[in-house]
């Protein structure tokens, strides 16, 4: 744990404010070398665990789901636990089986629909092909004590890829969005050829599915999606794929009656013939919407953040927040009404680092801060960041040992 009452950069800001330029010349330390609190957080998972997903609830508790296998091979189990009143609940096994599709980027999730109604999803093999798997969705109406039999939201009945699910609230129902490979022709070498599509549906509390809706017939093949609701408008963010292999981040909006045509958050102009496996993240704070994403036009990797003040109709010019060698795998959280924090993985020398940066609305972005050294391989998964009370909680996978690491940072230290 690191503690420092006043950071070096804060001192420099004070000196600049009061024109103490002669004092600045004596400060030879880098502004990026900042010390603050990083504190270990209690962990409900054990050895053989991986790919956590964090959610803060309306009641001020914290949910975490994860996959685990004591032998680090099939069968796996999907677990869930809730942090409340200073401790985690006894982990509950939601589903166990010998045919989980376990993927570093396409991990299970947990979601609070309302009050004690929770939803979760995972991927499960359907056929003999490497990428033949379905989305399974389960509902709990008693806050995770018991779970429904799994439901498959897509109804094509084809042994192909389905995944990268995002949940959102659709009136009183569960909104579900996923990428769908029903139009992809099989190949002996792997993914096959054809267009990946974006679909959505709803699941009612009676476990009845609404109609399938095709949102976009041609999207990036394996980038995570995200979804949220702001001002009564449902938003879905994903990576598109044009006929010219331009892969911009796009938004689709719904006012409850119909879905809009996709709009690009920004025309990055990134032409790439394959999927970068790097999706966008959305964050809502009242009427303010933030979005973060990875891109690499002309081979120059970067992580961008942009804002919308009209419920996702238009977005500001992107702000670049990385340090020159990002891997991406972003997350995004508002810490108060005026500040948003973005996390990402940055390469540094022979290692990788989980980093964050604070961006005040209408102000200059803060210096980046190091959370932890992290494995640069796919085994570390997508690091999770969530605001929980007066702290930011981070969780990620430590490959090799196959365990989950969780730390927290007090927001007051940012």
Features:
30 strands, 4-stranded antiparallel β-sheet, 414 residues, disordered N terminus, 5-stranded antiparallel β-sheet, mainly beta, 3% helix
How would you characterize the overall build of this protein?
The chain is mainly β and 414 residues long. It is built from two helices and 30 strands. Strands 2, 3, 4, 5 and 6 form a five-stranded antiparallel beta sheet that branches. A four-stranded antiparallel beta sheet has the order 1-30-29-28, with no helix packed on it. Strand 3 (62-68) and strand 4 (76-84) form a beta hairpin.
- What multimeric state do the chains show? single chain
Low-confidence stretches: 1-33
**Largest sheet: number of strands, sense, barrel closure:** 5 strands, antiparallel
Instruction: Tell me what portion of residues adopts beta-strand conformation.
Output: over 45%
Class of secondary structure makeup: mainly beta
N-end to C-end Cα span: 14 Å
Number of strands: 30
Q: Compute the average pLDDT.
A: 91
Helix content: under 10%
Overall 3D geometry? globular
The value of Rg in angstroms is 21 Å
Query: How many helices in DSSP terms?
Result: 2
List the helices and strands and how they pair.
Blueprint: H1 8-17, H2 21-24, E1 39-40, E2 49-56, E3 62-68, E4 76-84, E5 87-88, E6 92-97, E7 109-114, E8 117-125, E9 133-140, E10 162-170, E11 173-180, E12 185-187, E13 190-193, E14 196-203, E15 213-219, E16 226-230, E17 233-239, E18 249-254, E19 263-264, E20 281-285, E21 288-295, E22 302-308, E23 319-320, E24 326-334, E25 339-348, E26 351-360, E27 369-374, E28 384-388, E29 391-398, E30 403-410
Antiparallel strand pairs: 1-30, 2-3, 3-4, 4-5, 4-6, 7-8, 8-9, 10-11, 11-14, 12-13, 14-15, 16-17, 17-18, 18-19, 20-21, 21-22, 22-23, 24-25, 25-26, 26-27, 28-29, 29-30
